[in-house]
User: What shape does this take?
Amino acid sequence: MKTLIDRIDRFIYRVKKLNKLIDSKTTIQGVIRSVLGALLLSVLVLLPIVLIIINMFIYTKLTFLLSVLLVFVVMGWSFLYYFFYYRLLKNYFPQIEDVDTRTPQLFESSLLAFVFAIIGFVVLTTVF
Assistant: This one.
């Protein structure tokens, strides 16, 4: 058990170290542009899917299935957002090209997807 805890600790330390390296090479304006661009792109990509799912709520027998599908779409949104965020960050700051951004990207998006899954589970258990 101790080795698992040690591996998790080393992984989190590596993510923190990579985030500090990325933060040292970026500016506030570039990060704000990356955040806003990633929000816009990820919402534009998922908007048709969400609109189709919401329009299908007229079928009352599919309500629970569509609600679960919406939770999965929201969980997937976090992965899509961080993908676009780090991609735009690399475009705005070419000196980040050699930094491994995949590890913080997967860690942060997984953490956010886990939070969304818990919120979705709570909402679904209260509604249904």
